[in-house]
Amino acid sequence: MSKRNTFVLGATLSLFAAFPVFAAEITADTVVATVNGEDITVGHMIVVRSQLPEQYRDLADDVLYTGILDQLVQQTVLAQSLGKDLPKRAVIALDNERRALLAGEVIDGMVSQPVSDEALKAAYDERFAAEAPTKEFNASHILLETEEAAKEVRTLLDDGADFATLAKEKSTGPSGPNGGELGWFGPGMMVKEFEDAVVALEPGQLSQPVQTQFGWHILKLNETRMKDAPSLDEMREELTADIQRQTVESSIAAMTEKATVIRTDAAEIDAAALKNLDLLNN
Question: What does the DSSP assignment read for 28-65?
């Protein structure tokens, strides 16, 4: 909803008392007001309410009824004042709004179709059936700015210093206050130099200074574990979204392929013309 519409509604809500309409049978076509012969319906009001910010939708029904109706009446009066000769800017904007709205309706219809269990299982198998368990690592590190500083820390550790204490005192990384703990991570989640050094360690071992783009690290591998692929139930929501997206994309591609589309040669159009708002006034 535009700031202008929100302002109008807010002002209206503060000025008018609630006046709900009661009817035996209400449909989207039920007329709630007529402005110079132009009807405003319950359907118009429903759409406005569905687009309101959350703080307005939480208002009492009768308060919202009055506010929305007054807003629509005011908008109708303003729109009628333009007469039949609409500014080119408004005509073009309405064309775009209509096109986008109708396209959105079609897409909504596509994604509203339920995704079958068979399709979900096929998508799951395609992604995970051949996936072997992956090895994950739980590690800590102390990040230093120079190799010399990293060597000094490694010497302190060899002499029996506590890793977590040194991390809190000397690490320049965000994990320092937490004793250098990085938690669990899998392949590809760390920069290559860091990951390669961790993979080479056994639980409890320390690395020699390792340089990455972030500085110099002393690494400690705490433990490892094997992680299986996520279950179908865990992936259901993500897979459903993927299937719906693929359905939309393939449907749009097929519809576009069947359509007769004639594009003006791009060389004939100056792309910079899109920045010229004055063209909308011609």
Answer: TT-EEEEETTEEEEHHHHHHHHHTS-HHHHTS-HHHHH
Structural domain boundaries in the chain:
3-81, 134-227
Q: Is 134-227 a CATH 3.10.50.40 domain? A: yes
Pull the structure tokens for residue 119. Answer: 């399709």
Run of H or E including 251: helix 232-258
Name the phi and psi angles at 94, rounded to 5. Answer: -65, -40
What token pair was written down for 12? 């209206």
Q: Could you tell me the pTM of the whole model?
A: 0.59
Residue 48 to residues 1, 4, 44, 70, 182, Cα–Cα distance (Å): 9, 14, 6, 12, 48
Please state, in angstroms and rounded to a whole number, the distance separating the CA atoms of residues 154 and 142.
10
| Average pLDDT per 10 consecutive residues for the chain, totaling 282 residues | 49 44 76 96 94 87 94 95 90 95 95 93 90 91 96 96 96 95 94 96 96 96 92 94 95 96 87 89 76
